[in-house]
């Protein structure tokens, strides 16, 4: 599935899947919900390295586990503890062609 990362080296996307790990825990993000056609804001509360899923707790109290590398999401600028990730956090779904 995502075993051959060689094609991703030349992609426009600056981050690899491993960049979306525990480093995001505690950060505020917004996740695109295509059926609602809007973003919902929340906090990344945990990361499961085995399933490679982040738990996002939304501002309305709802929570879900997501593979952020397959979701459309953006980092919110109001993160109180801005971390120096050295990465561009404009999350976009990975194309199935790559």
Automatic annotation (TrEMBL):
GO terms for cellular component: chromatin; nucleus. Transmembrane segments: none annotated. It is found in: Nucleus. InterPro entries: Pds5 (IPR039776), Tudor_AtPTM-like (IPR047365). It comes from Solanum pinnatisectum (tansyleaf nightshade). Residues 77-98 are annotated as: Disordered. Residues 36-69 form the PTM/DIR17-like Tudor domain. The keyword DNA repair applies. The keyword DNA repair applies. Keywords: DNA damage, DNA repair, Nucleus. This is PTM/DIR17-like Tudor domain-containing protein.
């Amino acid at each position: 599935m995502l075993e051959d990362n060689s094609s991703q080296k030349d992609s426009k996307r600056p981050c690899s899947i491993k960049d979306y790990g525990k480093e995001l825990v505690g950060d505020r993000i917004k996740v695109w919900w295509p059926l609602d056609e809007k973003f919902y804001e929340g906090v990344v509360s945990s990361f499961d390295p085995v399933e490679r899923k982040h738990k996002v707790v939304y501002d309305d109290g709802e929570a879900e586990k997501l593979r952020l590398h397959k979701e459309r999401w953006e980092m919110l600028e109001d993160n109180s503890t801005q971390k120096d990730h050295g990465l561009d956090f404009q999350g976009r779904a990975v194309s199935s062609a790559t």
